[in-house]
Specification:
alpha/beta, Rossmann fold, Hypothetical Protein, Haloacid Dehalogenase-like Hydrolase, Chain: A, domain 2, five-stranded parallel β-sheet, 9 helices, 31% helix, globular, Cof, HAD-like_sf
Length: 281
């Protein structure tokens, strides 16, 4: 562990901060508020689009800029608006769709724009929990700029699909997954949770050594490796546990809260009263 003073806590939501029943426990809410009161910044970092962040923001009261769609979007909860985007360009969406459709005719695609999900017929990836998926043709989909291009296969697991997709598109995009479904998520080259947390931290004058991060799935690996200390949850994917500096208890055991309680109890890790500021991030 190379963390010095904790000035920023970056935490994934599903499978990490959020329990399996979709709730955030009172214990976790209390601890997050204590961290903020101690002068640190808490950044919610998720594969979710902004519209799915709102229940967790409301439950926790954390209103600093949130990182959505695996780093593709910075969302300001206070203003309820997207302030910055790092999108996969339509030309790259079209190239990837063409390559993967030729290599595996059974794949189906969807695009998350940040505001909506557009999906071709046969897509069953489940990344439209709000029922707001908009049907579209493959030609229409290939003309969209994507926060995430979602690739579904009816038989391959997420791990198997990741191994199939990554070498075919790695030169022009980032590929990961965050679920147990038959789905992978593709972002613009160089865009990840880690890259966007690093950007926000730099704007606040915070170094990686002053960041503690939490996650559970492959889309969290880069963030856990970048942070001064990266915690994988006890329920995390095996590759995430292997990549982390340390293990936290599971999401259903309030693992994030329990680790942060230990840091709060050891005052040498908490910032001085002067707060890190995320104004203008």
């Amino acid at each position: 562990m190379t963390v010095t003073t904790i000035r920023l806590v970056a935490t994934d939501l599903d499978g990490t901060l959020v329990r399996s029943d979709g709730t955030v426990s009172p214990r976790t809410v209390t601890v997050l508020r204590r961290v903020v009161d101690a002068g640190a910044v808490v950044v919610l970092v998720s594969g979710r689009p902004p519209r799915w962040m709102k229940p967790v923001i409301a439950a926790t009261g954390i209103d600093s800029p949130a990182i959505c769609a695996n780093g593709a979007i910075i969302y300001d909860p206070r203003a309820d608006r997207v302030v910055e985007e790092f999108l996969l360009a339509p030309v790259d969406v079209a190239r990837i769709v063409a390559v993967l459709a030729a290599a595996a005719p059974d794949v189906r695609f969807a695009v998350e724009t940040g505001a909506d999900t557009y999906a071709v017929d046969g897509y069953r990836g489940g990344w439209h929990q709000d029922g707001g998926v908009r049907p579209c043709s493959l030609r229409e989909l290939a003309g969209l700029a994507a926060a995430k291009l979602l690739v579904y296969h009816p038989r391959l697991s997420a791990d198997e699909l990741l191994e199939f997709v990554r070498p075919r598109v790695d030169a022009i995009a980032e590929v990961t997954h965050s679920n147990g479904r038959n789905l992978v998520e593709i972002s613009a080259k160089g865009v990840s949770k880690a890259s966007t947390v690093a950007l926000l931290a730099a704007r606040m004058g915070i170094s990686a050594a002053e960041v503690v991060a939490f996650g559970d799935m492959p889309n969290d690996i880069g963030l856990l490796r970048w942070a001064g200390c990266g915690y994988a949850m006890a329920n995390a994917h095996p590759v995430v546990r292997a990549a982390a500096d340390a293990l936290a208890p599971s999401n259903d055991a309030d693992g994030v809260a329990r680790v942060l309680e230990d840091f709060l109890g050891s005052h040498k890790y908490m910032p001085e009263p002067e707060r890190a500021s995320c104004e203008g991030c």
